[in-house]
Hints:
- The structure holds two protein chains of two kinds.
- By secondary structure, chain A is an all-alpha fold.
- Chain A has helices spanning 8-14, 24-37, 43-76.
- In chain A, 5% of the residues are buried.
- Helix content of chain B is 81%, strand content 0%.
- Chain B is globular.
- At the A-B interface, helix 1 and helix 2 of A face helix 2, helix 3, helix 6, helix 7 and helix 9 of B.
Amino acid sequence: MTEPEKDPLLEALRDLPPPVAPTDATKRLARAAYVASFDEGSPIFRWARAAIVPTVLASVIVLYLSWAFSAASALVQ
Amino acid sequence: MDDERTLVSALIEGERAAFDQVYDAYHVRIFAFLRRLSNRQDTAEDLAQETWLRFARAAKTLRPDTSLASFLFTIARNAFASHRRWAMLDLSRLVIFGFETTTLAEAPDAQHERTTEMRRLERALATLPIASREVLLLVGVEGLDQEEAAKILGLTYEALRQRLSRARAQLAKKMEILERRTTPAGDTA
């Protein structure tokens, strides 16, 4: 770890009073989001939900390729 | 450090008290960082909210050795960077961006009883380019370790030191200009 900067200008910056920050609404929202992030069902369900889109995409691609391949072979014959 | 590890472990476990503790410890710092970075109260409020929401959603995926300050300031900085990219695409907001620094710098700050020196410092900081401002905010105002600040800004340690030194020189110059501007007025008063 490095030494903190010993500089009067930087130290003066450290003494600047913080602006007035809003508290309640943000805290309530953030806490609700935090709690909700732990209530998203079982890991298996979450995994299944995340796997749906890639699986469907992969199936469509495989189906299309097999159709294209069979059509090409039919044309060749 | 051990306290932070305990706090992070509790966060990963889903303890609400741990979340509240982190929020209470950092919300003023995060807001102040965003307020000074954006130079706007409303933008800072939105970005602070976004930062905390992102943090809340990511909390359970934290590593036990995560530095909360680094993590939170990185989210806040990324939120600001993405806001700025969108603002650049929007011409009307681009105009606001051009004027906002001046607006803040000229505004009388009646909320706090600050010394002239503090006000001058705040004004000088507000007029610096964002790249300089963010490094001064992290190292100067927040007192973060330079290696930590380099990580947050995605810079090497050496690059951070150079940027800090440049930013410091810019700030000193701005302070000098502001001092020169205010001195004659002070003499005549």
